[in-house]
Each structure stands twice: as C-alpha cells, then as structure tokens.
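Quick illustration, no need to memorize.
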Amino acid sequence: MTNNPEILCMQLFSTPILTSMVPDSGILNVQLQALIYAQKGQNEGMQKSNIGGWHSQDDMMRWAPNESRTILTHAMQMCTKYTADIHPSGKRDFQFNANMWANINQKGDSNNTHCHPGCLWSGVYYVDDGIETNGDDAGGHLIFEDPRFPMNSMYQPDLVYRSPDGTPQRNQHSVTPKSGMLIMFPSWLRHSVRPYKGDKDRISIAFNLMVEDG
C-alpha cells in the first residue's frame, strides 16, 4: 500500500501589486481633466515608452499641486503599509519623494514593455478610463510581466506551475483600467499597456516614489 503524505507548497518571493479606489475620485477627476487638457494645449509632450498618445513632462506636481498631493498622499499610505525597513540598526526615518506625469491615449495608442529604474514604487491612477458603457472592453489593459519570465517557456511553453488554489500560473497579469483606480507596484516590475480601442480619450497619471533619508 502506497502512502500519500501531505504536500506543503510554499509560495516564496511574491510580488506585491496594490490596488485601491481613491475616495471622492469623481470630483478629483473633473479637476484633473481640466488641468491635463490645459497642459496639453501648452506642451507637445515627450516620447518615452508611449507609442502614440500624449505624455507630459514629469513636472505635474508643479502645474497640478493640490491634485497631485491628493493622489500621492493616498499612494504613500498604501506603500508605507507594504514597505519594511530591515536595517540592522532598526527602523530609520525616511520620506518619499516623487515625480509625476499625465498621459492621454486615443484609439490605437499603447506603451512598450518597460520598468522604472532608480525608484522604489511606481503607480498609475486612472482619471478617465474612456469606457462609455459598463461592461465594454475598450482594451488598453495594463500588463504586468512575471519577473521570472520566460520561466518554463524556455523548456516546455505549455507546462506551468500551479498556485495554491490549483490555478495555472501565467507569465502575465492583466488589469482593466477603471476611473478612480490607483495601482501601485515595484518599480523594477516590467509592465506595458496594450493598444487602446475606445473612441474617447483615456486619461491616466503615472508617477514614481523614491525614498530619501529623513
């Protein structure tokens, strides 16, 4: 008779992806839209990871100080909860510094896979998801790439590991944008944006959090 001992599966080295809906985002988003469109009228933007679309300079905290502060305060509260200081001398005083920019995507616009060097946390806030009817799929999903990629794809592309709940682990995770949603993730995590298919502008804000000793 064969014994079937219990199997313990430890899921090590997980990657934190934080999501939250910002309170009173409706009022905030109206204010942000006006400021972002005004800035777009004054500045032709810049080319970074974006394929098409408008990408502002990373000085949004200058031309939208109050609105930027609202988003960053919420983001810093989220990240502080999930950031630990394990320095041998004990917890040190530190504070976050940030840079921030706005994006406007139209039909067909996307972002190449990239990461944000020199930062600790990065974030995306959706001002307007561009979705006119609930349930519509306007594309433009935010894609996170498994940092172990290509993992088993180098050996057997159709063989993947199972999560504790039994579901197969994919090498990408897709997030559907939603107005008022704030997403925080480690800056080293490679991510991209699929082509947007909506007819309205999709407006988002992206930013980085750096840590400075207090």
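The chain has a mean pLDDT of 92.
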